[in-house]
Amino acid sequence: MSSNNLDLIDRLRSAVGAAGLVLEKEAKAAYETDWLQKWTGLSSVVVRPANTQETAEVMRICHETHTPVVIQGGNTGMSGGATPDTSGAQVILSMVRMNAIRNVDPLNNTLTAESGVILANIQAAAQEANRYFPLSLGAEGSCTIGGNLATNAGGIAVLRYGNARELVLGLEVVLPDGRIWNGMRALRKDNTGYDLRDLFVGSEGTLGVITAAVLKLHAKPIARATAWVGAESVDALIRLLAQMREVCGERLVAFEMISEESLDLILEHVADVRAPLANSHPFNALIELSDTQEQGLADLLESSLGDALEGGMIQDVVVSQTNGQTQAFWKIREGISQAQVRAGKAVKHDIALPISAIPAFVRGADVAVRKALPGAQIINFGHLGDGNLHYNVLLPLDSSPEAYAATTAKLNRVVHDIVSVANGSISAEHGVGQLRRDELRHYKSEVEFDLMLRIKQSLDPNHIMNPGKLI
């Protein structure tokens, strides 16, 4: 190790103490590889600050020494945004020790948490106060709220409550030079200048370090009604979605689409799941209502879907009768990532489209992908209610890294070109990271990309924040 590195580590140790450093090769390995095992890098040291002041001192040191920093939460990302490169020069700044819930205010419907708090713990703290924090995703038992905000996470309740950006009121951020911006305002109205909060939400650690947040809470739902439906086409599900929104209003919390091919993959590779319907259908939807009042919710769901069934909009439906049946439905939906990992190597497309454009996209993309890759296994599922599809193509498990990379580049161009024509987005909820960085340059306009670069240069002139990610 060079004298410069030793000096850097000594300075970092003085900032966070010996308990805040991870130096051993074996211990660092857990931070240097993402959970998907797709990206692996090397770091000079892992730094784990215990509070905002320690984080600020770490950033001041790295700014002065021009040391690149990769910010990491629960390391559950899908796009390689929290993994260092292979140079061994980057510092990993892990926020997991900043895990305190500072305040819960039921009267203001807010919860203040540090960035390293596990999402599930925030949900539990809200529930203890008879409130509800609606951000929910498959990794909620290990992902952190800082990472959720940095990537503007979505999840299953976006249809009703919005994504992470819409669930935060204020932020505390350590800037690249070590200054602390205290934007911890628990206000719904604040017209005093530029909205700096939204600048950092979704910035993937390229502009600063989110150290704490004031989060919005909601009234706690006490009733839920859940159903699984089968349909002949995406068009039918889009019409059903529109009808459900008109009839059920804000009670409609989730409208998840799963193609027949996706469902078959789950049934094959995930234990203890079975098909909800007796017959197969080209497309399925998992639909859920919730309310703060229990009376009439199940009847509303049954009558709405009964009308759709009688009108031929859908071909089959089963309404959950027990909590266990509801959990079984959701286990199917949540099992898709596990099934893909076990079955092959997925070329993943996390796309957003205007809901009305989804049927034409699916038809066009199916044809284009199978033309580019005959016999392609398309795994199409996602949050139909908010226009976010996970339009993936599964390659064989034994695909070589070279073949996987070449096919990914080829299919990205095919799929993302169709998304672009529909005025959609190539990243809906998983972030850009390393995975879509080059794609972003291809699809952003010169003006938009120039504005992003100017903001980056203004806040991070030494270019130390998460280099090689996003831009």
Automatic annotation (TrEMBL):
<keyword id="KW-0285">Flavoprotein</keyword>
<dbReference type="Pfam" id="PF02913">
    <property type="entry name" value="FAD-oxidase_C"/>
</dbReference>
<dbReference type="InterPro" id="IPR016171">
    <property type="entry name" value="Vanillyl_alc_oxidase_C-sub2"/>
</dbReference>
<comment type="similarity">
    <text>Belongs to the FAD-binding oxidoreductase/transferase type 4 family.</text>
</comment>
<dbReference type="InterPro" id="IPR006094">
    <property type="entry name" value="Oxid_FAD_bind_N"/>
</dbReference>
<protein>
    <submittedName>
        <fullName>FAD-binding oxidoreductase</fullName>
    </submittedName>
</protein>
<keyword id="KW-0274">FAD</keyword>
<dbReference type="InterPro" id="IPR016164">
    <property type="entry name" value="FAD-linked_Oxase-like_C"/>
</dbReference>
<dbReference type="InterPro" id="IPR036318">
    <property type="entry name" value="FAD-bd_PCMH-like_sf"/>
</dbReference>
<dbReference type="InterPro" id="IPR004113">
    <property type="entry name" value="FAD-bd_oxidored_4_C"/>
</dbReference>
<dbReference type="InterPro" id="IPR016167">
    <property type="entry name" value="FAD-bd_PCMH_sub1"/>
</dbReference>
<feature type="domain" description="FAD-binding PCMH-type">
    <location>
        <begin position="39"/>
        <end position="220"/>
    </location>
</feature>
<dbReference type="InterPro" id="IPR016169">
    <property type="entry name" value="FAD-bd_PCMH_sub2"/>
</dbReference>
<dbReference type="InterPro" id="IPR051264">
    <property type="entry name" value="FAD-oxidored/transferase_4"/>
</dbReference>
<dbReference type="Pfam" id="PF01565">
    <property type="entry name" value="FAD_binding_4"/>
</dbReference>
<dbReference type="InterPro" id="IPR016166">
    <property type="entry name" value="FAD-bd_PCMH"/>
</dbReference>
